[in-house]
Amino acid sequence: MAILILGLVLFLGVHSTRIVADGWRSATIARIGEMPWKGIYSLLSIAGFALVIWGFRAARADTLVLYTPPVWARHLAALLLVASFILLVAAYVPRNAIKAKLHHPMVLGVKVWALAHLLANGVAADVVLFGAFLAWAVLSYRAARQRDRANNTVYPAGTASMTALTVVIGLVAWAAFAFMLHGPLIGVRPFG
């Protein structure tokens, strides 16, 4: 569990600089340049992510069951993950109404992803992993919305065609991951 926690501290810590030290982040980028910042950020993120994966696999092998979710929670989690994938895609498809309305769909997608997994999994390693991501996403979304208000950020209106494209790509990505990739990559087959 210690490796998982170390990985979460590193990965989420790097991703929290805009939440807790936005001024320091801006000053550091101004001092060293954007590309060196992105390089350091990426290396630390990759190291943290690798530790999260390694630590999670190790912690799942020998961990405590904190609660046993009811069967319906797995079905609700699958439905929430459809929304999560659509939100994640909405962060990247330009001029979609989801991003225009919600402003930070990727962070909302992480919130929904984490919540869905907490509903469906009651093992300590799962609670630590998904609970940490949920807490980070709540704080990140709050900070991003505060920055938007402070900067009077206006998001471009979405179009029906780009919104439809966002939903279709999100559904296809969810289906591919749920039915084909989750088992081989994560070791759990959500649908049998």
Secondary-structure blueprint:
Blueprint: H1 2-14, H2 17-20, H3 22-32, H4 34-61, H5 71-90, H6 97-102, H7 105-120, H8 124-151, H9 160-186
Helix pairs in contact: 1-4, 1-8, 3-4, 4-8, 5-7, 5-9, 7-8
Keywords: Membrane, Transmembrane, Transmembrane helix
Protein name: NnrU family protein
Pfam families: NnrU (PF07298)
Q: What count of structural domains?
A: 2
Poorly predicted runs: none
Please tell me how large the radius of gyration is: 18 Å
N-to-C span: 27 Å
How large is the count of helical segments? 9
User: What structural class should be given to the helix and strand makeup?
Assistant: mainly alpha
Helix proportion range: over 70%
Largest sheet: none
- What best-fitting shape do the alpha-carbon axes yield? globular
Q: What is the average per-residue confidence, as pLDDT, rounded to a whole number?
A: 93
State the order of secondary-structure elements, H for helix, E for strand: HHHHHHHHH
Q: Count of DSSP E strands?
A: 0
What is the strand content?
A: under 5%
Q: Which short descriptors sum up this protein?
A:
192 residues; mainly alpha; 2 domains; membrane
Report on the architecture of this protein.
With 192 residues, the protein is an all-alpha fold. The two termini are 27 Å apart. The chain is built from nine helices and no strands.
